[in-house]
Design brief:
Blueprint lengths: L9 H7 L7 E5 L5 E3 L1 E9 L9 E11 L4 E10 L9 E6 L12 E9 L3 E6 L4 E3 L7 H7 L11 E4 L23 E4 L37 E4 L22 H7 L4
Parallel strand pairs: 2-9, 11-12
Antiparallel strand pairs: 1-3, 3-6, 4-5, 4-7, 7-8, 8-10
């Protein structure tokens, strides 16, 4: 059940349509709304900041909990590939009561990470709201982070499209070690081209081994949403083989092949 959700009159939407053309702005939930666990409907509209919704090709929608600096994705609501952005700028979500707690107030918000047609991603966050009827718990780090939450603003917009940040193809982001990168979008270097012949006598790793720690408790949910691999600069060309084909055999091989004509 969704409470206190107001829809703009059709006449007002028609009046504003020519002047807004941008990414996601959540309109439901509203700041400070009280929603109940179960079936809810998330809604959004053009925000007024590029890129346009029509320039977003795919998306991931999450329910999050925590502070603006430290939060966890408690539910991956839905994902859509290229050309499958939700019709009508809304999506019905099912929120199970065991995903988190009902307290504190305004612990929850939605996050949508969208891929732009021109490259990169843009991440938008809804205002904070509360969920009642929740019977689960939050991880200890989220419980601690929620103590610092005040107000109803969610995290700030993250623009990593080619016009808004380091997502521009060909930038030096591809030179940063993958494990040293932060944010939902990571960049991988250009894939090597196989050689024309094998010269190695034994297999050797391309990169040194990395330090690791064996997990003894449950780890936090992954935050990387997209990996962009640097475009290949290698190209090939081909041409027709103009050499005349070899003639059919006339010796014993011809007799052998003739046996299979039946």
């Amino acid at each position: 059940m969704v409470r206190n959700v107001l829809l703009a009159p059709a006449a007002l939407v028609g009046l504003l349509a020519p002047f807004v053309c941008a990414d996601v702005e959540f309109v439901a939930p509203k700041a400070g709304d009280q929603w109940e666990a179960g079936g809810v409907e998330v809604k959004w509209r053009e925000s007024g900041v590029a890129p346009a919704l029509t320039d977003l090709t795919s998306y991931d929608l999450f329910l999050c909990a925590g502070s603006n600096d430290e939060y966890v994705d408690v539910l991956h609501i839905t994902a859509g590939g290229p050309g499958s952005f939700p019709t009508g700028n809304k999506y019905p979500a099912s929120i199970g009561s065991g995903l988190g707690a009902s307290t504190p107030q305004n612990a929850y918000f939605f996050r949508m990470t969208s891929t732009a047609a021109k490259g990169g991603t843009v991440t938008n966050f809804s205002p904070r709201f509360s969920l009642s009827g929740m019977e689960g718990t939050f991880p200890p780090n989220i419980v601690a982070a929620l103590k610092d939450v005040s107000g109803t603003d969610g995290p700030g917009r993250i623009d990593k499209t080619s016009d808004g940040g380091p997502a521009a193809p060909g930038g030096n982001e591809f030179e940063v070690e993958y494990t040293m990168q932060t944010g939902p979008t990571r960049y991988a270097p250009m894939q090597p081209i196989p050689p024309t012949k094998i010269t190695k006598k034994k297999a050797t790793p391309l990169h040194p081994t990395s330090a690791f720690t064996i997990a003894t408790t449950f780890l936090a949910r992954p935050t990387v949403q997209t990996t962009i691999t640097q475009s290949q600069t290698f190209s090939i060309s081909s041409r027709e083989n103009t050499a005349a084909p070899a003639p059919m055999p006339t010796d014993d091989m011809a007799k052998f092949l003739a046996r299979w004509k039946d």
